[in-house]
Write a structure and sequence with these properties.
The structure holds 2 protein chains of 2 kinds. By secondary structure, chain A is of the alpha+beta class. Chain A has 11 helices and 13 strands. Chain A has helices at residues 9-18, 31-36, 72-78, 84-91, 96-99, 104-110, 118-124, 215-227, 230-233, 239-252, 263-294, and strands at 2-4, 23-25, 44-47, 57-59, 63-67, 127-132, 135-140, 145-147, 150-151, 158-165, 171-176, 187-194, 199-205. In chain A, strands 4-5-10-6-7 form a 5-stranded antiparallel sheet. Chain A has a 3-stranded parallel sheet with strand order 1-3-2, with helices on one face. A 3-stranded antiparallel sheet of chain A has the order 11-12-13. The longest helix of chain A is centred in the C-terminal third of the chain and has 32 residues, at 263-294. The termini of chain A are far apart. The mean pLDDT of chain A is 95. By secondary structure, chain B is α+β, with helices and mostly antiparallel strands. Chain B folds into 2 domains: 4-81, Beta-grasp domain (Ubiquitin-like (UB roll)); 90-171, [2Fe-2S]-binding domain (DNA polymerase, domain 1). In chain B, 30% of the residues lie in helices and 16% in strands. Chain B has 5 helices and 5 strands. Chain B has helices spanning 26-33, 90-97, 107-122, 143-149, 160-171; strands spanning 4-11, 14-21, 52-55, 59-62, 75-77. Chain B has a 5-stranded mixed sheet, with helices on both faces. In chain B, strand 3 and strand 4 (59-62) form a beta hairpin. The model of chain B has no long low-confidence stretch (mean pLDDT 96). Classes of the chains: A alpha+beta, B alpha+beta. The interface between A and B is medium-sized, with 33 and 36 residues.
């Protein structure tokens, strides 16, 4: 096994162009499991740890540019206020040891439907910055996941950063597993309220071949909130609306039966998580609206 | 390239360099080449935490998930590097006082993890069980906080009750 250690981003792109089958490794929390158990025997490993810029983030006026290797620990420490959905999901990734190494770039590179970051990324409406020696392109997150553990990257491309809109409203994440630490989620759900556009976005994990959005549920909820004037009057969402939203989220999933849980359990749990996270985010939104009016 | 590389790092303060197979994990390098056998190989895929070491001072990591060649120049601290001569580290002493083990296999990882967990709580880093309205500053080391913060370390003997007591004593 050859081991390439580029010292700069340009060197990394050149190496990936020369060795398109090279497996990129950053935190190593997924790749190393496969190597230790001989599930994968890459000819070439491309170590990205020396590329300092991948560990940096930049908080702009409207967006946050998150380097692909920024660890979950750093996201929790530094980006809670601007990326609350992703930070909440980061809290539940594996264990403290893993969170010190793993980052969002790895979740996107593996593109496992069970990756904890995906629901928050989908709900945020981010873009993934990928590059090769041929140039740079931005892939909208909705077009990033193309199949089971497959993403939209070309063989010579590497993930450089994720551009996430700064949260303009409350965001939440919830997942079901046998315990909080070190389990692959049975299913997961993320929601982001976007008051500035009066829209809602969602993300579902571990309940379809790829991470997906529940688009019908989003559209239904946005219409119901608009119709009732809820964004302005901040009233409690009627239980019937929350129930319908939950049912549409369940319906968006396309889960399988496996050792972690049955398809029908996953659908049921998603509905419960959708209803609860909607309640949490809406309570927070109403609280903010109320204190803004009192001020 | 022949699949080997030279790597140089510091292990418990002492320089160590060697030409190694690129596939060598930090855990295998520590145990089989450097003779540092505190970190244990439990699961070899980051689930059990028995191989937990401290990287560059304060970050706890699973040594089984790191390729040694990627750590050129790094500073690694294992359980062997915590004591000050014959004086045990406060976390080591607390594990003895509270009987925080039975067979002891997970203990080196538990202790390294606890050292970092205590430092993180003191530095005010929240965990998933920290209430959202907690004011900034050191996090109160409740049993729930300790259990969450130590959740990357498994103990098959089930000494958790005493481990929590030991960590809590030092964290206070």
């Amino acid at each position: 096994m050859d081991f390439l250690r580029p010292a700069s981003w340009e060197e990394a792109l050149a190496a990936k162009a020369e060795h398109p089958t090279a497996v990129p490794i950053a935190g190593g929390t997924d790749v190393m499991v496969e190597i230790n158990f001989d599930h994968r025997r890459p000819d070439v490993l491309l170590d990205l740890n020396r590329i300092g810029e991948l560990h940096d983030w930049e908080v702009g006026e409207d967006t946050v540019r998150l380097g692909a290797s920024v660890s979950y620990t750093r996201i929790i420490e530094n980006l809670r206020s601007v990326l609350p959905g992703l930070a909440t999901a980061s809290h539940t990734v594996a264990s403290p040891q893993i969170r010190n190494r793993g980052g969002v770039g790895g979740n996107l590179g593996c593109a496992s439907p069970a990756g904890d970051a995906h629901p928050a990324l989908l709900a945020s409406g981010c873009e993934v910055e990928v590059a090769s020696v041929r140039g740079t392109r931005m892939i909208p997150i909705d077009e990033f996941y193309v199949g089971v553990k497959r993403n939209a990257l070309a063989p010579d491309e590497l993930i450089r950063a994720i551009h996430l809109p700064r949260a303009d409203g409350p965001q939440q994440f919830s997942k079901v597993g046998t315990r909080n630490a070190m389990v692959i989620a049975v299913c997961a759900f993320g929601i982001a309220l976007h008051p500035s556009t009066r829209t809602v976005r969602t993300g579902i994990g571990s309940a379809a071949p790829t991470p997906i959005r529940a688009k019908a549920a989003e559209e239904f909820l946005a219409a119901a909130l608009e119709e009732g004037g809820f964004w302005d009057n901040g009233k409690i969402i009627p239980p019937a609306v929350a129930r319908q939203f939950a049912e549409l989220v369940s319906g968006a999933a396309n889960p399988i039966d496996d050792v972690r849980g049955s398809a029908s359990y996953r659908r049921h749990a998603l509905g419960v998580m959708a209803r609860r996270t909607l309640g949490w985010t809406w309570d927070e939104y109403r609280g903010n609206e109320r204190s803004a009016r009192c001020a | 390239m022949d699949g080997t590389s030279e790597v140089g790092l510091r292990i418990n303060g002492k320089p160590f360099s060697r030409v190694i197979d690129n596939r060598t994990t930090l855990l295998d390098l520590l145990r089989e080449q450097a003779g540092v056998t505190g970190p244990k190989k439990g699961c070899d895929h980051g689930q059990c935490g028995a191989c937990t070491v401290l990287l560059d001072g304060d970050r706890r990591v699973n040594a089984c998930l790191l390729l040694a060649v990627s750590l050129d120049g790094a500073d690694v601290t294992t359980v062997e590097g915590l004591a000050d001569g014959d004086r045990l580290h406060p976390v080591q002493q607390a594990f003895v006082d509270h009987d925080g083990f039975q067979c002891g296999f997970c203990t080196p990882g538990q202790i390294c993890s606890a050292v970092a967990a205590i430092a993180e709580a003191r530095a005010g880093w929240p965990s998933v069980v920290t209430p959202p309205d907690t004011p900034p500053g050191p996090v109160e080391p409740t049993a729930a906080e300790i259990r969450e913060r130590m959740s990357g370390n498994l103990c098959r003997c089930g000494a958790y009750v005493n481990i929590v007591a030991a960590v809590r004593e030092v964290a206070r």
